[in-house]
Amino acid sequence: MQTIQKKSLKVGKYVNNNHVDTVIRNYKTERWVYNSERIGKEDSLSAWWSIEEVEEFLEKAKIYGADGVKFYFAAYDEKTAHDPNYIGRQTLVMVGTKQKENADGTTKNKDIYINTENGNQILAYNAGALCPPYCGTSQDLDDAEPGVTIIEKKDNSFVII
Fold it and tell me: How far apart are CA 132 and CA 142, in angstroms?
C-alpha cells in the first residue's frame, strides 16, 4: 500500500508575549496614530469574532476547497459600514483561498469565488466587533489589550492606547 504524503502549507508560527507587544506597539506608533489623525477619530486596533463564527467560516471554506485564509486589511465607508461608528475605521476581511501553482513553478494563494443566487461571489467574512469604538469599559490593566503604548502626538499631547 502506498502512502501519499500531503505537503504542509504552514507559514506561521506561535509567538510569545514580547513579540505580540512589540508588533502591536510598532503598529500603534507607525500606523495607528497617523490613521487616527487622518480620519479624525481613533482608528480601530482590532476586530473580534467568536470562535463559533471562525469555525463556521473555516468549515464553509473547506467545503469549497480552500486550503488557507487571507486576512485583508480594509476600511469601512458609508456604504459598507453596518454600524455608523465604523465609518472610516479599518477592519479585517477573512477570505478563503486555494494555493495554485503558476507556470513557472511558484505558488500563489488565490481567493475563492463561489456561485450564489447573486452570481459569482468571493468567499469572505467581515463585520467583526471593532475596538475602538467597542472595547469594553474595564480599566483593569489585567484586562487591557496587549502592548499598552504612550504616543506623543504632533501637537505635543499624549495618548495612551
Answer: 18
Q: What is the pTM of this model?
A: 0.78
In this structure, is residue 50 part of a structural domain? yes
How many angstroms separate the Cα of 66 from the Cα of each of 57, 74, 97, 100? 11, 21, 5, 11
- 73: burial class by Cβ within 10 Å (0-12, 13-18, 19+)? exposed
3-state DSSP assignment of residue 69? strand
- Domain residue limits at 125: 46-131
C-alpha cell at 51: 470562535
Q: What is the pLDDT of residues 2-51, one digit of tens each?
A: 766 677 888 888 899 999 999 999 999 999 999 999 999 999 999 999 99
Same-domain status, 38 and 69: no
